[in-house]
Amino acid sequence: MSEEATGARPDATHLREVGLTGLGTYVPDETVSGGEIAAASDIPRDVVVEKMGVREKHVAAPDGDHVTDMSVAAAEEALSDAGLDAADLDLVLYHGSEYKDHVVWSAAANVCDRIVAEDAYAHESYALCGGAPVAIRHTAAQLRTGDVDTALLVTASREEDLVDYGDEDASFMFNFGAGAAATVLEADPPDDRTRAVVRESAAHTDGSFSMDVVMPAGGSKRPASADTVAEGLHALSVPDPEDMKERLAEVSAPAFLRVADGSLEKSGYDRSDVDFVALTHMKRSFHEHLVSELGVGEDGHHYLDGYGHVQSADQGLALREGLDSGHVEPGDVVLFLAAGTGYTWAATVLEWRG
Fold first, then answer.
1. What is the pTM of this model?
2. What are the backbone angles phi and psi of residue 237, rounded to the nearest 5°?
């Protein structure tokens, strides 16, 4: 009997190959310039544009561009890129912002319904801004073992809404922008539809940072009320910015490189093999340090100073820019490298086929 008829799964020696077959991105039309951020925050424009690395960023319209709207737009582009219909999907996974259309609510199920993925199940995965490599890692494991055959990963963020430009202690969040990204992953896809082969991943968490970035009210510890709204407690805040900065400075670069090296080694590569790094948006000097340590030149990365930081959509947006500029070509080793507050660092290796 066939494997399909018996329900058997591939054994460890016959794991299926996972291919990325579709990529989609979306950003709102409205933008905010670095100069406007500087004016709203009383931070010099050159600090915002050069040090923070925000030439401009996209922001969501107040009456639209909710995370599900943006996810659907990116998903439709990714499915078209893969040459698939939503009916072909077995899984829809949302790995974007927890700040979404509604609280205690599944954005994944909403996206699944709106794209009419009638045969798929939907769920969500949270690693905050480190979500893209983590979501690919988990879904690739399902695909390799035969748990699902075709999956759509979507992410979106409009956390710019949560930033208080008058709070200097939260200035590292002034780069938050809005947008979305989507990828289609398939098990053993035909060569003519395989854009990239998904290789191995690595991740690391230092939970001592788990309380360093919080929204003071709105959760079970301090439910929303008229008082919490009046006190402005529904914006992201950093209780002790100097302490966080001091501790993070010592561990973040080594942690980024630790997961990069781990994913590369498990994939049979090292830093000298990396052709393009799709990296979370961060201050310019830190970005330059990491890409230098990884040994990629000017064509081996894209700095997202025209987008800002769009949570776990950063990797998809950077990859799109790399493809559009011709800096990602067949045969390239692409490294998705990310980190999310909490603090989790994660990486996944792709072999680009084109």
1. 0.93
2. -140, 160
Read out DSSP for 314-337?
A: HHHHHHHHHHHTT-S-TT-EEEEE
DSSP β-ladder status, 344-352 and 333-340: antiparallel
Per-residue CA distances from 318 to 209, 304, 305 (Å): 26, 7, 11
Q: Using one digit for the tens of pLDDT, what is the confidence trace for 73-100?
A: 999 999 999 999 999 999 999 999 999 9
Domain ranges of the chain: 3-195, 197-352
Establish whether domains 3-195 and 197-352 are of one fold.
Answer: yes
For 118-176, what is each residue's pLDDT tens digit? Answer: 999 999 999 999 999 999 999 999 999 999 999 999 999 999 999 889 888 888 899 99
User: pLDDT tens-digit profile of 110-134?
Assistant: 999 999 999 999 999 999 999 999 9
Q: Are 153 and 136 in contact (CB under 8 A)?
A: yes
Q: How far is the C-alpha of 140 from the C-alpha of 198, rounded, in Å?
A: 7
Residue 9 CA to residue 16 CA, distance in Å, equals 10
Distance CA 318, CA 324 (A): 10
CB 133 within 8 A of CB 348: yes
Topology (CATH level 3) of domain 3-195: Peroxisomal Thiolase; Chain A, domain 1 (3.40.47)
